[in-house]
Structure formats: structure tokens, C-alpha cells
Amino acid sequence: MTTTVRFAPSPTGMIHIGNARTALFNWLFALKSGGQFIQRFDDTDVARSKQEYADAILEDLHWLGIRPTLVDYQSRRFAIYDAAVGRLKDSGLLYACYETPEELELRRKIRLSRKLPPVYGREALKLSSADISALEAEGRRPHWRFLLPNYETDPFATQRTEVRWEDVVRGPQTVDLASMSDPVLVREDGSYLYTLPSVVDDIDLGITHVIRGDDHVTNTGAQIALFKALGATPPAFGHHNLLTTSTGEGLSKRTGALSIAGLREAGIEPMAVASLAVLIGTSESVEPVPTMEALADKFDPAATSKSAAKFDPAEVGVLNRALIHQMPFDSVEVRLRDLGIVGGDAPAFWAVVRGNLERVADAGLWWRILRDGPDDADALSEEDRAFVAEAFDLLPAEPWDGSTWKQWTQAVKDATGRKGKMLFMPLRVALTGRFSGPELADLLPLLGRARTLARRP
Residue 129 forms beta bridges with which residues? Predict the structure, then answer.
């Protein structure tokens, strides 16, 4: 059987690095096994779901390097859900309930006061036809609960009923169905909650592995029971730890915290995001991984910690710099061309400047400095201007190579007596307009003697 996974966000906002963690866990799992990745949008909440968010999520996934085999939308599959509801009703496993939220809360408090678990007591199963008619005459409409198989013959005499599974991430897991309320699958207005469409889709689309955040662990027992009630074999489940900031703050799609789109617009490399999102909170060291294939080789879902994966957002920048400093020219050639960096000098230029870049786009600044000169003519003091003018008189003849800078600065030192920072910094500022940057020994041959002399104050 082909491994088939899915990423199933609600298109109600921009996905963030925490959502990307789930998407990447699934993508890498499929990649390692030659499987399929299905992109499913859980958009049954038609009031909040928007196509523009779905499109943006697809763009974000594509940028990260994730290529879905199939894209589907729950809003286009209501007929399949309706059929499943009919089957559950016919088998007596979906029953109508008429309690208001206030009544349910009161019952919950009563059970707690009696030191009983605050689970739904299945009172709706005791309603007679007359009771139901009276409630509906009041204008009440039912919501529908799935009857969990946590009893032998009497649904009011629940007993410990363990659902066990070997979690792909967390190892052996057990949930007691007697500790849970029968989940509501259909709201009063006929709309579906998450559970039923998700399970029906997983069956219909042949999902073999459900890998998601560990906030869903307790849901898994009821979902496994629902798979079986619908006559299906449950998929394997895996629950990874959630990603939080170093202060423990969770991430939210609605607030746009650390959104993938925002990181992309800020010039962050996709593999910097992927490296952090996948490796943080695992036994692997968090380091920049240059390709998705290399990340797949490092990926082991079972190596994931059970505690929350806390990270400092600044780590993304650290990984980004490390990736850029290692990038070969051919991997950025097209992007550099878009910045106007072309010609025979472009490969050597990239090799010289990449070690000083925060973003690939920053190379455009250094290209302009190389071609057009520094943009701050007033950075030198009068004393330093006089020193630089004298130094430029000592420029060696061409051809220039990697030894030219040492040859020049030695001549300047001998002539002026300056050394160290007092010698090097004014020359750097005169040549680049910056107090830091690429090694001048490497930059000088790219500048050439004519362009260097043009910077003489």
C-alpha cells in the first residue's frame, strides 16, 4: 500500500512556522517512503474560510518545496458526509441531543460536585417521542452525538474501554473511551464539526498515516472508534510536539505570528524555515540543511520530544545566514540576475560577498558599491581623507590578484607609519562606504585599479 499523508489546515488565515512543522513532517514522511502528500482544506466553516487563504497556503507550501499530489476541499464533499451521517443514524450510533450550552454546563458542574468525571451522561438517549416533540415545539433543533463503544449492553453503564495505537512519534498510546463524552459530530444548524468530515475524508482518500500536532492526542481514541463504526481500518497516527516561542507563547494563524508569507517577504530562505521547523524539539541538532532531500535523511519522527518545542524567532535568521554563506553560485544565479548582477564577474562577486549577507537580496547593495562606488562621501574625517589620498598614490600597478591588498597596505604602512585599524578602516570606508563587509583582499581584484582610483577623495 502506498504511504499517503495529508496536511489539512482550515483556510482562515496565513499559515505560520508551527503549521509548516506539521506540513513538513508529513511531506518528509512521504518523501522517505516514496508516498503521496494530499493537501486538504478543512473549509466546512464557510463563514470564516476564504479561497484567498487557501491560495496563499498553497503558495507557501510551494515556496517551502512541498508539492501536493492532490488538492481537495471539504466544502465540495458534503454529499459524502451526508451519506456517512445517514449510515451512522441507521445503525443507531448517531443520536439527537437537545440540551442548550447552559444546561450542559450546569450538568457538568453537578457531576464535578459529586466527584464524577465531567462527561456527557447520555440523557438524550432517555428522551421519549413525546419529549422530543415538546422540545421541538419550543423551537429547539438537535445536535448529533456519536455513541462511543464504551459499554457492553447498557449505554448508561460505561466501562473502561481502552483504544491503543502505536504512535509514529510518541510510541505506544492508550485512551480510555469511558473518560470521554460522546463527541458532537453535527451542530444544530446541520453544519459539521471537525471530526466527521476528517475521518470520512481520510477513509475516502486512502490516508495511511495521520501526522499532526499533539493537541489531537485525546481526540484519536474517538476517531479510531468512528473509523471502525464506518467499517474502515484506522490509519496509523503520529502526534508531534507543538512549536512555541521561547516564552511558551503559542502561534496563531489568525494573528499572523511568524507567518510563512512574512518570513518569505523578509528574505528568509525556505530551507532555513524548514530546518528550524523540523529539527527543533528533536534529538537532532538544529542546523541549516541545504536541501529537502538532505533534511529527509535526517528526519526521524520518533526522535521528537514529547514536550513543547520552544524556539527563539531569531534562530531563523541565524540559520538563514549560515545557509546563504554556503550557497553555490548556480543555486542563486537567477535571483542575482533579477538584482542586476550579471556578467563574468558575477560568480566571483558572489563568492566574495555571500559571507557577509543577511539576505540574498543584500547582494544588490554590494554590487552597486562595486560598480558605482560608495554612497557616503562624507564618512571620512579630514585627517583620514588626507591619509587615503596619500594611500591611493601608492596603488600597485595591475594586474591585481589576491595578494594586491597586502602589497598595497604594506606600502602604505611603510610610507605613513599607520597600522592596524587606523590604516585599514579609512581605506575600507573610502572603497565601500561601509565600516564592515567582505574581505578587501578579495574585493580589490573585482574593483580593479580604475574603479579604485575613482574613489580617491
Answer: none
Shared-domain flag, residues 350 and 410: no
How many C-beta atoms surround the C-beta of residue 310 within 10 A? 16
- The half-sphere exposure of 34 on its side-chain side, counting CA atoms within 13 A, is 2
Number of domains in the chain: 4
* Residue 93 · residue 59 · CB < 8 Å: no
Angle between helices 51-64 and 270-279 (to 10 degrees): 90
**Residues at the annotated binding site?**
253
Sheet strands (E) in 368-428: none
Mean pLDDT, all residues of the chain = 94
> Looking at the predicted structure, is the pLDDT value of residue 48 above 80?
yes
Residue 455 pLDDT: 93
Is the domain of 360 the same as that of 293?
no
| Cut 0.85: pTM above it | yes
Question: Which stretch of DSSP H or E encloses residue 298?
Answer: helix 292-298
Residue 255 confidence (pLDDT) above 70: no
Classified as helix, coil or strand, 323 is helix
pLDDT above 60: residue 256: no
- Pairing label, strands 143-146, 184-186: antiparallel
Q: Is residue 427 part of a domain?
A: yes
Residue ranges of the binding site for ATP: 253
The SS3 of residue 245 is strand
**CATH at residue 110:** 3.90.800.10
The pLDDT value recorded for residue 310 is 87
